[in-house]
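Before a computer can learn anything about folding, someone has to put a protein's shape into writing. The outcome of that step, for a single protein, is printed below:
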Amino acid sequence: MSTAPLLTGRRLALARAVSVAVLGVLTFGVLVALVTYPSWQLALALVCLLPCPVIVWFSLPTWIPPFAPGVPAGAYVRSLVPPVMVLALVTLGGWLLSAAPT
């Protein structure tokens, strides 16, 4: 049974830096929008987006390669929960951002 991580070393550091930078810029943009045009939709969008960089930072080392031999299904489920959670939070934040009054 091999649950070797998908990313290690320099690739992990690069993936963390790029992912957190992209999510950080997105979060900063929502913060600027909230300061410029305050609304409850933008506040909730910011609340949805704030934990995303942290979740990605700590979950990247736990990702395992798809279809690795001998890996139980439970390991894949544990590996997929954080990325799916980030995707759901970013989607909800984007929907709230689009619903905000201008």
